[in-house]
Structure formats: structure tokens, C-alpha cells
Amino acid sequence: MDEVIIVEYNPHWKALFEREAARIREVLTGNIISRIEHFGSTAVPGLAAKPIIDILIGVRSLTEAKQIAISGLETLGYAYWFDNPDPQRMFFVKGLPPKPGRTHHIHIVEQDSILWERLIFRDYLREHPDEAKRYAQLKHYLAQRFSGDREAYTRGKSKYVSFVLQKARLP
Asked: Which positions are tagged coiled coil (predicted)?
């Protein structure tokens, strides 16, 4: 079982992202990466989170990325999700069972992907600590309710995330 566990914010998460981003740039050479971002809850100072560093990588072409990224990221210990139902995203996990504990997720998308909207959410929570606190409370509640069901945990956050994105887009 892949249990949902929420922990208090760890100030080392930023450095863990920066170190991993440098390692990723070493194996994904050339001009394949147009942008790399730390996103998700570990990218928001003070926010409780699943202790998994989410990395968003922008590329010109997923077709080109598939030729390089899979083997390159496997050398860093990542597993590629070949059966991902979303053809607009490549998804990698570091620490899939039987290895102990997930530590990183990589999402590779093209520059026009809707996934970039998650940066709006991240930035809004960074700028509004009270909103981040409400989000942490929801995450704790959902983690208790759906401790063994990652998909239900994620679905439980979707309305809140949409609500915050609407607020973030207001002038």
C-alpha cells in the first residue's frame, strides 16, 4: 500500500529540489529543458506536505523528450510510468516500491500544458500564508480519511485548488 502521509514543512526541501534539478540537467543534456520548477506543497514555505519533491520540467517536444528522458532519468533512480493515461505528460517517480519511500516526482510537459497553472496555485499560497494554512488543514483531514487511497486524496483537494486558482486570477 502507498500510504498518504502529511508531514510538517521541512526547510531542506528547497535545497533538495535544487540539488535534484542540477542532477537532472546533467543527464538531460542539450536544449531539451526549457524550464524547470519546484512546485507542489513542498515548494511553499511553511506548508505541510507529503514529503515528495515535485519537479515540473518544460520541453519543446514530448516526442523528443521520450527519446532522451527515460533512459537518462533511470540513471538517477527514477521509474517511468509507461501506462500513464495522460498523453500530454511524462511522469517519473523516484522511490517506487519495493524501494523505500517516494522522494521525488518529475512531470515533463510541453510549454502549453495546463499543468503550468499549478505554479499560479503555488505562488498564491506563497503570498497568502492564511490560505496555505487552510490548505494544510484540508490536506491533514484528507490524509486521515483516505490514508490508503492517493487518488481519493487528490480528488478531495480538487475543488479547493480550483477555488484558489479563481481567486489567484482576480485582478
From this structure: none
Which residue, 168, 115, 158, is CA-closest to 135? Answer: 158
Domain coordinates in residue numbering, the chain: 13-169
Q: For residue 130, which amino acid is it? A: D
Output 71-75 pairs: Cβ under 8 A, ≥24 positions apart: 72/27, 72/28, 73/24, 73/27, 73/28, 73/106, 75/27
Bridge pairing between strands 78-80 and 53-59? unpaired
Q: How far apart are CA 44 and CA 48, in angstroms?
A: 9
Angle between helices 129-145 and 150-169 (to 10 degrees): 160
Cα gap 31→27, rounded to integer Å: 12
Output the pTM of the full model: 0.93
In the chain, count of helices (H) and strands (E)?
5, 5
Sheet holding 78-80, edge to edge: 33-39, 53-59, 104-110, 90-94, 78-80
Rounded to the nearest integer, the mean pLDDT of the chain is 94
Angle CA 93–96–98, to nearest 5: 165
Domain 13-169 in this protein, CATH class:
alpha beta
Each residue's pLDDT tens digit, 138-157: 999 999 999 999 899 999 99
